[in-house]
Amino acid sequence: MGNPKRLLTTVRFESDQDHPQFVSAAARSLAILNCFDYGELYLGNREIALRTDLPKATVSRLTFTLCSLGYLNYSQIQEKYALGAALLSLGNTYKRCNQVIAIAKPLMQRCAEETGSSLMLGSSDGMRMIVLASANCASCPDLDLEPGARVPHGLTALGRADLAARRDELFQRYLSELEPQCRPVDWPQLRDGILRAREDVAASGFCYSLGDWRSEIYAVGVPMVGKDRDRILAFSCGGLAHSMTHERLYEKIGPRLLQLRDEVLVATKGVF
């Protein structure tokens, strides 16, 4: 039979819940922490139950446990829960343990200033990408995407670059799980954009999102594959459409982003 852990991938899928090593209680606890959105300080058990599709009694037990461990704080006045400071400690530990962010940040900032653009470094987070680091030049509009923000996989250059580097089995699995989450009328265009990105990365090393996510933003994305071939991060570089034409992205920005990726790969020795 072998070790079932070896069947795991670094990409999260809904179907992983059928894995023999999957612990539902842990997944439910993390789902509660993930249901808080930007700008929301407090959520009650009822709101959490609606967002996680968990029974209210289950939510009540899990929020109590998470409070006991410091991952949630309970307000007697609000009679609701807020995220606990222990989560910030986890995030800080991640940054300190993973050298790729510290290495990439100054290189990204230099690239942003040279190209007059905004850059992001991201990692796969289920059906989305999570921003690990960002950099902006003074003249480029702030996309308001701080570390920890999530962006779509299939619409952004960042996400498409990640998908383009996935081995065939994972790529097809992703498409099969993404389709039911999309409106039927939107699916053909979304699928075609992802497939085209895979072809572009194979041909030139980078792919595009030309107003697909935000109509005013044009961007190019580049995957970064580690020594562990399933460990993939992605860079994107973009800005306002009037300055980031397809020609400029192809001739200037894409090659510069490949250079940045290669510099980070060398500095990290492919381990991140």
3D structure, described in words:
44% of the residues lie in helices and 18% in strands. It is α+β, with helices and mostly antiparallel strands. The strands form two sheets. It has a six-stranded antiparallel sheet with strand order 5-4-3-8-7-6, sandwiched between helices. Strands 1-2 form a two-stranded antiparallel ribbon. It is globular and about 55 Å long.
The CATH architecture classification of the largest domain is: 2-Layer Sandwich
Assembly classification: single chain
**Total count of strands:** 8
CATH superfamily of the largest domain: GAF domain
User: Which percent band covers the strand fraction?
Assistant: 15-25%
Shape: globular
Number of helices: 9
Number of domains: 2
Describe the main β-sheet briefly: 6 strands, antiparallel
Gyration radius, to the nearest Å?
20 Å
- Per CATH, the class of the largest domain reads Alpha Beta
Portion in helices:
40-55%
Task: List unreliable stretches of 5+ residues.
Answer: 1-8
Distance from N terminus to C terminus (CA atoms, Å) equals 30 Å
List the secondary-structure elements in sequence, H or E: HHHEEHHEEEHHHEEEH
Structural category: alpha+beta
Please, what is the average pLDDT? 90
What is the topology, as strand order, of the major beta sheet?
5-4-3-8-7-6
Salient structural properties:
9 helices; single chain; 8 strands; Beta-Lactamase; 6-stranded antiparallel beta sheet; 2 domains; Arc Repressor Mutant, subunit A; 272 residues; alpha+beta; disordered N terminus
Question: Helix and strand layout, with pairings?
Answer:
Layout: H1 24-34, H2 45-52, H3 56-68, E1 72-75, E2 80-83, H4 86-97, H5 99-115, E3 118-125, E4 128-136, E5 150-152, H6 157-164, H7 168-178, H8 187-204, E6 207-210, E7 217-225, E8 232-240, H9 246-268
Antiparallel strand pairs: 1-2, 3-4, 3-8, 4-5, 6-7, 7-8
